[in-house]
Amino acid sequence: MGIKKFKIIFDNPVQTYKPGETVSGKILLDLDSNKKCRGMKVKISGKAFTRWIQPSGNGSKQIRGHETYFSSKFYVVGGQSDEMELTEGEHIFLFEYVLPTNLPTSYELKLVNNEAHVRYIVKAIIDRPWKFDNETEAPFTVVTEYDLNTDPIARGQVFIEETKTFGIFSSSPPLIVTLSLPFRGYVPGQIIPITVNVDNQSGVEVNHIKLKLEMYGTYLQSGSSSYPMKKKVNMSIIDTKKNKYEEDVFQFIHNFYIPPTPPSNIGMNCSIISIEYAIELEAEVDRM
Asked: 3-class DSSP state for residue 82?
């Protein structure tokens, strides 16, 4: 008895918005009996959260971080000092809210003992005096655009060379591996063309070349501390393995297609979460 249906429907069917846009929709309420209340209240908020386990003495402690970007409450019918009755049947209440212009992109990551997110939520509340309120909520996504064309670092080329020698009592000639990218900045849907050169003078056989696209997240504890606690996590987005090569000198180009991933500009408007991406190369050699 009471509520048959209580849900939030956004005008934007994909529920995705940019900072500064208007979030609008309707609250659908279907009652099978009359209900007394102060009114229908809407709460819309955007918040960031971090959590991880930190070793402490002989045990561990849980570290948390919080950050609020906006939090607004308003009535779409009724009010704090009102008393009204919602009648049996279906009711529709409209709502809208203009988002702030400086918001971080929505973000979700949950690992064992590690969690971080940036979430945006609309909550509808039947405000009932002296009783438990009835509530329903719906998340929406915020995407903060970032123009790589305006970033001179993103346009820069990448060239990295690593050298390794082998031997216990004397060193072998070097194994030289280089990795190069035409640009440093990419967006989801693009291809990262990775050029790898191997010059193996060591005499040690190279069995495989592994490539990974890694995401590195840094989570901070909120608060007034001058040195907030920090947690770093990394997560493999893409990985591949090239088979054994017989030649001592060779080159190949591997194309990574970038899947949908959180943007690395999240830290521009969020002070407790930052993200970086890196290409990792590993030459797997004969253990003998």
From this structure: coil
Nearest CA to 114 out of 42, 210, 216, 33 is that of 216
Beta bridge partners of 66: 49
Structure token digits, residue 130: 């002296």
Looking at the chain, which runs of residues are DSSP E strands?
3-10, 16-17, 22-31, 35-37, 39-56, 59-78, 84-86, 89-98, 107-111, 114-127, 134-142, 158-164, 175-181, 191-200, 206-220, 230-242, 249-257, 273-285
The number of angstroms, rounded, from the C-alpha of 253 to the middle of its chain's C-alpha atoms is 29
The token pair at 20 is: 């500064």
Decide: helix, strand or coil at residue 218.
strand
Whole-angstrom distance, CA of residue 176 vs CA of residue 78: 73
> Is pLDDT above 60 for 227?
no
Q: Does residue 225 surpass a pLDDT of 70?
A: no
Condensed to tens digits (0 to 9), the pLDDT of residues 228-276 reads 567 777 767 777 776 666 778 888 899 988 888 888 888 889 999 988 8
SS3 137: strand
